[in-house]
Known about the structure:
Helices cover about 45% and strands about 15% of the residues. The chain has helices spanning about 30-35, 40-45, 55-60, 65-79, and strands at about 10, 15-20, 40. It has a three-stranded mixed beta sheet with strand order 2-1-3, with helices on both faces. A hairpin with a 2-residue loop joins β1 (about 10) and β2 (about 15-20).
Amino acid sequence: MFPIDDKIYIKIDNHWFDLTNYNDHPGGFSILKKYHLKDATIDFNLIRGHSDGYAEGKLAEFEIKNILLVVYLNLILKN
């Protein structure tokens, strides 16, 4: 239905984000891969600096708006 193997999808605060093209993440791309298809809310909120306007604005750029994809990802996360 949706390609997921070549993407980086991460859930934070009940929102899904496609971070596949976030190549300049300060923590490196490997940390994004670690949370692929997982809920990273707790760990995300523990990181100092993630609550500032910059991080929130950056996330908004990557939020998934396709409701069918969001439903699909939620089903994957539950299984």
